[in-house]
Amino acid sequence: MSGKAKADKLKARLPRGFVDREAAEIRATERMLQKVREIFERYGFDPVETPMIEYTDALGKFLPDQDRPNEGVFSFTDDDEQWLSLRYDLTAPLARHVAENFDSLPKPYRSYRAGWVFRNEKPGPGRFRQFMQFDADTVGAPTPAADAEMCMMMADTLDALGLEGQYVVRVNNRKVLDGVMEAIGLAGAEHAGTRLVVLRAVDKLDRLGLDGVRALLGEGRKDDSGDFTKGAGLGPDEVETVLSFVGAKGAAASETIETLKGLVSESSIGSAGVEELAEIARLVGAAGYEGKVEVDPSVVRGLEYYTGPVYEAELTFEVTNDKGQVVRFGSVAGGGRYDGLVGRFKGQDVPSTGFSIGVSRLLSALKATGKVNLSDENGPVIVTVMDRAAVADYQAMVSELRKAGVRAELFLGNPKQFGKQLQYADRRNAPLAIIQGSDERAEGVVQIKDLIEGKRLSEDIEDNAEWRAARPAQVTVPRTDLVEAVIKILAEQAADREGAGQ
Predict the structure, then answer these.
(1) Which pLDDT score, from 0 to 100, does residue 449 have?
(2) What pLDDT was estimated at residue 494?
(3) Which residues of this UniProt protein bind L-histidine (predicted)?
């Protein structure tokens, strides 16, 4: 290769914060999402899909940084010189969709959607610039019953995924926090920026602990990498008032609510928020979700557009993080009430509430608990090619298997070395290999090699002679019985997997 050709060679690389997804993960994700869809459909929600690109002003002031339209999001201008952005979440596009079709949609409007969202932020461990969310929202329902239902639906979803007893859905109310803000002198539009910094600081409680949040409420905090995050600039007394609110959770919902009443007794909006929390607690208790859904003042959610109840689904089992520390797995979903978001387009508030699932994070949780094992994903049955002149016969086998509903593939590489074909089948995680040479064809038979059983047996075989003598997990059947025999063996393999998982 000439020097110029080497210089012109394009380097294959991914932008930071993006990942490729392989087949096993994609299939596992789809199976998980199907279970989520079944629960959402059971609650009466219908699917809707919005584009990945919106006008930037549709995302508006709820972006992470209001000063630049391409700060926090990926933005560009079209040929009309209007700013467009890749969606930051699925909620703002839904609000635009509802406002644009308001008169034709039933109210309440109950919908769900899954899709990719994009963040133009600093990537890090477990923090990506593109990730998938799965949302459910109710628009047009003003009462706390809609918020309580969201929390119960999330509990049912986690139960359906096999996580029963390993989570808690925690609910709070931003109106109560607004009452606390009034108490420390941060009411009014002129303090909106500081309030947002306070919200985001409290939202990091599970990750940074009380000391980390205390620093972010004050002058600021330097992380392990040396980066400094400017704080809210609150005084010591103000910081302690906010932390008292965060730590107000009692042993029972009634105890928590009484404590919150005392903290916001002089605030009408704060008192209204406490009453809404009491109603949610009453509703989830009556429906049998006590212990699954709890009132917890430490939940605030970091986005500014929430106007009432907010909630998070937290997994309570322990895992080891990147620093080797044993910690709770943490949040996999969250949401809340956003009565003002549709109203940006309508000129008046439209009551709305919704939940958003972090799809990759939820899949990681299922892998951590053994509910999903990507290595167990079987590939297709591989029909090998022993005789190039008989490719039509091999293709007929593949066709018969496919018509019977069996995932099957004809080896399309170089068939010269049979061992390479079996290596290919192994890399594809194929459950079976179909083998027919000229001798088998003359006899009207075919060999079926059980690759899964062969791997298991090979662990006990110590040399090639023993391997040849044992010919493990290989059977010969009449060619006419090929499909029936393959289906039987695949069923036995599936039964073995189910038995091993019990």
Answers:
(1) 94
(2) 86
(3) 89-91, 119, 133, 137, 301, 305-306
**135, β-bridge pairs:** 113, 356
- Looking at 310, 335, 368, the residue that finishes a domain is 368
- Residue 133 marked in a binding site: yes
Q: Is 482 annotated as a binding residue?
A: no
- pLDDT value at position 460? 56
pLDDT of amino acid 456: 65
- Give the chain's domain count: 2
Q: Is there a binding annotation on residue 474?
A: no
Q: What's the pLDDT at 300?
A: 83
The single-letter DSSP state of residue 14 is P
170 is in an annotated binding site: no
Q: Do 351 and 386 share a domain, yes or no?
A: no
Please tell me whether residues 137 and 235 are part of one structural domain: yes
CB 299 within 8 A of CB 174: no
Same domain for 195 and 230: yes
**Same domain flag for 360 and 394:** no
CATH for 340: 3.30.930.10
Q: What is the pLDDT of residues 131-168, one digit of tens each?
A: 999 999 999 999 999 999 999 999 999 999 999 999 99
89 and 126 in a single domain? The answer is: yes
Q: Which long-range contacts (CB under 8 A, 24 or more apart) does 440-443 make?
A: 440/476, 441/387, 441/390, 441/393, 441/479
The answer on whether 306 is annotated among ligand-binding residues is: yes
Q: Judge if 253 and 344 occupy the same domain.
A: yes
Are residues 435 and 358 both part of a single domain?
no
- The partner residues of 84 in beta bridges, in order of sequence, read 55, 76
Query: What pLDDT was estimated at residue 280?
Result: 97
pTM of the model: 0.83
Q: Which residue ranges in the chain fall short of pLDDT 50?
A: 62-67, 471, 502
Q: Could you list the residue range(s) of the whole structural domain that residue 224 is in?
A: 23-368
The answer to the question of residue 341 being in a domain is: yes
DSSP string covering 15-68, please? PTT-----HHHHHHHHHHHHHHHHHHHHTT-EE----SEEEHHHHGGGSS-SS-
Is residue 89 part of an annotated ligand binding site?
yes
Is 301 flagged in the annotation as binding?
yes
Last residue of a domain, one of 368, 401, 436: 368
Regarding whether 496 and 407 lie in a shared domain, the answer is yes
**What is the pLDDT at residue 373?**
77
Per the annotation, does 91 bind a ligand? yes
Contact 49, 114 (CB under 8 A): no
The answer to whether 338 is annotated as binding is: no
